[in-house]
Design goal:
By secondary structure, the chain is of the alpha/beta class. The chain folds into 2 domains: 4-21 and 92-216, Rossmann fold; 26-82, DNA polymerase, domain 1, CATH 1.10.150.450. Helix content is 43%, strand content 13%. It contains 9 helices and 8 strands. The protein has helices at 26-42, 46-60, 63-71, 75-82, 94-101, 115-124, 148-157, 172-181, 207-213; strands at residues 4-5, 10-13, 106-110, 133-135, 165-169, 184-188, 202-204, 215-216. The strands form 2 sheets. A 6-stranded parallel beta sheet has the order 4-3-2-5-6-7, with helices on both faces. Strands 1-8 form a two-stranded parallel ribbon. Helix 1 (26-42) packs across helix 2, helix 2 (46-60) packs across helix 3 (63-71) and helix 5 (94-101) packs parallel to helix 9 (207-213).
Length: 221
């Protein structure tokens, strides 16, 4: 059955592993550069640096946040370095572009990545002109999802009414505050079908197909 999203007038989309498939392994390139950065900064062997990187991600929401909290690191050099990767693994999806273009109301990117990274990826995917604004880690004052304060900030900045908003994410934990605020939540990716979280309202491994079949405000089926 198609999802009933006819109440939605604001569409929030995560970026990485949401607007392109996890199977591209694009994020693996970024994570490898994160490991290199952590190893160089801390002097740890690479395997230990990777373990620290993953621990910071789990404990603080992003590796960057852990580095800022525990090492007093300035964020710009990290963001510039780790996002400087080839776009070759990302392929524009015409069906996804068409599906997003038909969504009524506002469309916003809500990412823990940087503004520059979001702009670069969206342009490569030919989706850059479909979104009204980008809410990135700089916009969040470097406090990443799933922090409730960051959800409060995006809702206030863009006058989002949570009961009329939908949020698409590949991370289950980032959907928890969205659901608690009253947003419709959609878990995206190959592992979505296995989620049993009460905070996940819909699950899909085919974002374009999901959006194309959804019931939308003012658009007949």
């Amino acid at each position: 059955m198609s999802a009933d999203l006819s109440h939605v007038d604001t569409w929030l989309f995560d970026l990485d592993n949401t607007l392109y498939p996890l199977e591209s392994e694009f994020m693996g390139l970024i994570e490898a550069r994160m490991t290199d950065f952590v190893a160089r900064m801390t002097g740890l062997p690479r395997e230990e640096a990777r373990a620290l990187q993953k621990r910071y991600f789990t404990e603080h929401g992003t590796t960057l946040s852990g580095l800022m909290i525990n090492h007093g690191m300035e964020p710009k050099a990290f963001l510039d370095e780790v996002h400087d990767v080839s776009m070759d693994r990302l392929v524009p999806d015409a069906a996804l572009r068409q599906a997003i273009a038909r969504l009524p109301g506002r469309r916003l990117i809500f990412t823990n990545g940087s503004l520059g990274h979001a702009e670069r990826v969206l342009r490569h995917l030919n989706l850059h002109d479909l979104f009204d604004d980008l809410f990135a880690i700089e916009t969040a004052d470097y406090l990443p999802k799933p922090a409730l304060a960051t959800f409060d900030k995006i809702t206030k900045l863009h006058a989002v009414r949570p009961p009329q908003a939908a949020f698409f994410e590949d991370s289950e934990k980032n959907l928890v505050p969205a659901a608690r605020l009253g947003m419709s939540t959609i878990l995206v990716g190959p592992h979505a079908k296995d989620s049993t979280s009460e905070h996940v309202h819909f699950r899909t491994n085919d974002l374009a197909g999901f959006l194309s079949s959804a019931r939308l405000q003012g658009i007949p089926q």
